Every structure is written in C-alpha cells, then in structure tokens.
Amino acid sequence: MPSRVCVAQVGAAHGIGGEVKLRAFTEDAMAITAYGPLETEDGSRRFEFDGVRAAKDHLIARFKGIGDRNAAEELRHLKLYVARDKLPVPADAETFYHADLIGLAAKTGDGREVGSIIGVHNFGAGDLLEIRPAAGGPTVLLPFTQDVVPAVDLAAGRVIVNPPEGTFDSTPRD
Questions:
Q1: Residue 170 located in a structural domain
Q2: If residue 46 lies in a helix (H) or strand (E), which one and from where to where?
C-alpha cells in the first residue's frame, strides 16, 4: 500500500487575505482537518490549517503562514498528502481507498493478466478503473462494479475483472 495519500488539491486564491479554494478527496470534505498537517507530494512543505469552511462544492481554507493573495496564488494546483496510516480503516471489506487500488494487477478469472490499474476516476456515474493493458495500446476504462470487478485482493496485489469480450484484444479494431 502507498505510504502517503493525496487528500486535497488547492484551487484558486479566494479573496485578498490568503485564503484558497480547496477540493477535498475525502468522503467527508471536512475530515481533512483531522489528519494533521498536509504535505506536498515530495514532502518538502507542510501546511497547517488556520481555518476551513464549507463553500458550495469545495472548501475555503486558510493555511498558517499564507497571509495574502500573492502567497495563496502560488499554491494553485498543489496536491496535498497525508501519511496513509493517519486515514481511518475502511468500514467494510467492499470499501477501498483509490490509492490502494492503483498499481494492482488486473487479471481475468482464469488467471490471465490483462493489465494494471493506473487510475480511479469518477465522472458522476460511478467509479471507473483505468487499466494499462499488458499488451500495450491505449488505456481501458472499466466500471468498478461487482459484475465487472467481482474481486479485489489487496494482499495479493490484484483485482479480478470480467471485461466485455474483445476489450483487451491486442489487435487494433476499426
């Protein structure tokens, strides 16, 4: 499992006092305040909250040491991480952190490896697994549903997939 997990991304500056729009990647957006300081991907900078409030579809955050709009604008697009062990254990065996799925092998029921998971996306209709095919070619998106992904085995580092016929054929289609 990854040692750190991306929990938020900084958006645009908000006002002139150093606040930023913040998009949380947690089920409960305000939960990011409970994990302690957030860090940049490389761990070179740490950010402590000086205040957070909910907005329409994001959070408005103020970080200690960021006191004006110019400083806030420099943070735009910055992804923020926490140590994996600071996150709560999923409530049930059917709940996964996206970061835990990335890198898992995707295998069919008969054991044939068809690729590996490189991303988990949600465009509004449910989670999709982005899989890089073992045979090369463009990535494939599969719905993360019980029918298409009947088993996830984190300990073994794999998911079992039932892709539609031809999805991972190595010959190009017209």
A1: no
A2: strand 46-47
Output the pTM of the full model.
Answer: 0.73
| DSSP output for 18-30 | TEEEEEE-SSSGG
For residues 130 and 152, give the distance between their C-alpha atoms in angstroms, rounded to a whole number: 15
Whether residue 53 is contained in a domain is answered as yes
26 and 77 inside one domain: yes
Rounded Cα distance between 49 and 93, Å, is 32
Nearest of 7, 36, 34, 37 to residue 23 by alpha carbon: 7
The confidence score (pLDDT) of residue 2 equals: 64
* The predicted structure's pLDDT at residue 174: 47
Beta strand 113-122 with 105-107 is antiparallel
- Residue-number span of the structural domain to which 147 is assigned: 98-160
Nearest residue to 129 (alpha-carbon basis) of 106, 155, 154, 95: 106
Q: Could you tell me the mean pLDDT of each successive run of 10 residues in the chain, 174 residues long? A: 85 96 92 94 94 95 96 97 88 84 94 94 88 93 95 94 86 51
**How long, in residues, is the chain?**
174
CATH number at residue 19: 2.40.30.60
